[in-house]
Amino acid sequence: MVSLPMSSLSPLSLALSQVLQQSEMSECNTLDVHVEYSALSSRRQLLQLLHELLTQQQQQQQQQQPLRLSSQRQLEYKPYKHAVLLLVDDIHALRRLYSGQNATSNLSHVLIYMLQPQSLRQLWQLLWQLSVLNVALLRPHPKKPQIIQLLSYFPFSSQHTKHNCPGDRLRSSVVNHFELPRGKWTSDVFFPAKLGNFYGCTLTCATWPDMPYLVRRPDGSFVGIEGALLQFMADNLNFSVGIYWLNQSEVRETFNDTGWIFEQIFRRADYALGGFHYKPRDGAAAHEMPYSQSTYYFMSHIMLVTNLPSAYSAYEKLAFPFHPHLWQGIGLVLALSYLFIWLYQRCCRRYSQHPYYQLLVLSMGGTLLSSELPHRSSTRLLFVTWLLWTFLLRSAYQSGMYQLLRQDTQRNPPQTISEVLAQRYTIHLVDGNADRWLESLPELKTQQLRHLAASELQSFGGLAASSGTSQRLAIVTPYEYFGYYRKVHAMSRRLHLVRERIFTQQLAFNVRRYSHLVGVLNRQIMLARSHGFLEHWTRQYVSAVDERDESVARISAVPYDTLDGLHDNPNDDDDDSDSDSATARLRVLSLTELAALFWLTLWAHLLAIIVFALELTIHKFINVCPIL
Q: Hey, how many other C-beta atoms are within 10 angstroms of the C-beta on 322?
């Protein structure tokens, strides 16, 4: 490898200066210049190059970004876009500069000049491990002294095979030339894009099967919200999707505050899907968080789903069509009418018939004999008014009773979390999530808590079966489970959603800490969101909170094996759903709805028998008394 003599440093400084001014580095907020050397003999050359570079920069009339100089100091991680110029003598000096970092998130544009570039493959391997992809290395042409080359590497290219990428065989690629006679670069491209095409390489995703998020079908296709997003990215970036299925013990270890499981996960996978449970509590642990997250692609709302309380009793259904205040008004009108008849008989005249009974018969829609009808105009007007009033009441009552029998109205379920707690519902939670729920809603600690034997999705069937009983049960669940369950089942009359959120969790991609994939994933998520794909996929698998059950577009259930080894097939409850639908279509009156009428008839007959027996007894007693 040929190194530049001292006399050629001025063209070299000019080449470096033009890269800083003409490339993406000029758009960065800051420029950090670091000098690092392993041998003291290299110090003079590097400092002279730095001096000439600064002189070149000062000669430019354009406004420069803030410049920070450092020597023999490690690079620090910066969570924003910035430019870095590294002047080193060998790869060992470069290793020392990055010794304090495991990755950089590919947020920097790095320009490197190395006095003695020995092994470029080791150099690219080091930068790849650090997620430094926007990087360029200046070196003189090995055979043409009048040309300075700008080198970089491409971790994904057409030369890689599907199972031999990325980073296995990193090679140097010439991206630009600086011609010393002309004093210019031959191209305007200094940092070519490297993450727009993965050329069919396999990127492994760590996840577990769960609907409505992601399930892989036997043919290799994906279903679910995350499955659609994953396929969307794979098509856009041209990569093959590999899956590393997490087992139940690995998922449970994500609750461990040490976070050790993530190092194991990211040794086997490039990224993971979903909301990891590990959340460091103290500042030191948060600074060393073992993974980085992309922007969120889904907001998971944690809510309460309850069963429906028992329906109104047979006697309550008879009074249901009218509000209690209306019943009180009707009773008051009847009482005043009876009082008026009694006063009229006391003061004016006494009727030979039974006016109280006749008034009741008229109110119930009965008829009177022509001889019993009023003869005066004033009483006829009062009579017609009474008939019209009772007719309207009877029609309204019959209409309300018909709607009651058609809709099978339930008691009003709780509408807020405070009502659920006040009514002493038994709260069911998934064992692994209990601590998080209780931390977000401490009031749950005072309730009766039970752990679910299966997942939330598998437990909705049992919760629906308990509706209509005296049990008051609720499940704390992400809404998307309930929204997916509604897509598969018609459960509007058997499950109730409390439309108040306990808290909201962001679902995002999780990658190795400060990985270069963060920016790639963020761009794909923003692309899917801006074009409405995320909302479309969500509506495809999850019903809206305010959507009526009749308008929910039903989908077929997707069977899969859950983490606990159970086979989840929501179609197992299809018989119940079909029977509910058949009942709704062929709603006929049964003894359940009309039981009160039979019971009232029975009680009335028993009361009539008792009254008849009392009349006989009193009559015999009166006949015996005169003899005594």
A: 17
